[in-house]
Hints:
A hairpin with a 5-residue loop joins strand 4 (37-44) and strand 5 (50-59). The model is unreliable at 1-7 and 190-202 (pLDDT under 50). The two termini are 22 Å apart. The chain has one helix spanning 133-142, and strands at residues 7-13, 16-24, 29-32, 37-44, 50-59, 68-78, 87-94, 116-121, 127-131, 148-152, 161-164, 176-183. Helices cover 5% and strands 42% of the residues. The strands form two sheets. Strands 2, 3, 4, 5, 7, 8, 10 and 11 form an eight-stranded antiparallel sheet that branches. It is mainly beta. The chain is built from one helix and twelve strands, in the order E-E-E-E-E-E-E-E-E-H-E-E-E.
Amino acid sequence: VVIDPVINGTQTFNKNDSGYIYRLDNGQTTLNAGARHIYIGDGIDNAGAHCVHRAYIQPQLPSLGPDDKVVNAYLNIHQAIAVPGQKYRVNLYQITESWTTSTMHWDIGIDPNMLDTKNTECLDNDWDEFDITRAAKDWYDNNNNYGIMLMADRLDGNNARRYHSYLESEEVGRPLTTVVYLNTTGLNDFNSYKSYHMGSAG
C-alpha cells in the first residue's frame, strides 16, 4: 500500500481592515477607523464620559488552491499598553454582514455562536491569540469574509483593553492572521472514509 504524503502549509498575513466603535451610556455611538489602536470593553471618551468599546477586524486572506483545505486559523493581536494585574475576558464573533471602515456599526450582524474567548492579562508587548478556524473555513468555502467582532463580557471600570490596529506604524505590531492548511491533491475525499474487508488469516 502506498500512502501519499500529507502536505501541510502555513500562511501568515498582517493585512486587514480594522476599527472600533464606542457607545456612551445614552446610546450615542462613535466610529473610529483611523487610529493606531483598537479598544475593547469599558473606557472613557475624550470628555471623560463612560463608554463601551467593540472592535472589528477583517483579515485579507491569503490565496489557497482548490485542493487546499483549512485545518486551523488564528488571529493574533498585539497589546498596546500594560495594566499590571488586570485581566479582561475578550470574546470573538463572526460577522455575518458586509461592512467597510466607514459603514461598520454597533449592531452589526454576527453569528451568536462565539468563535473563541480568552481571559487576557494586560501585559506590555504581549500577543493574544484566538482560534478563528470555524470562521476561516466558512470564508474560504462560501467567499463571505466579513471579519470578526471583538467585545468584552466584563463591563465595569474604565480600563478598556487596547490593541494595535492595522495602522500601527511598526508592521510587527499589526493584527496577524495565520491559516494552516492541508493540500489534498492525490488523496481520497478529505472528509470521507472507506472500509474494506481484508480477509482472515489461518
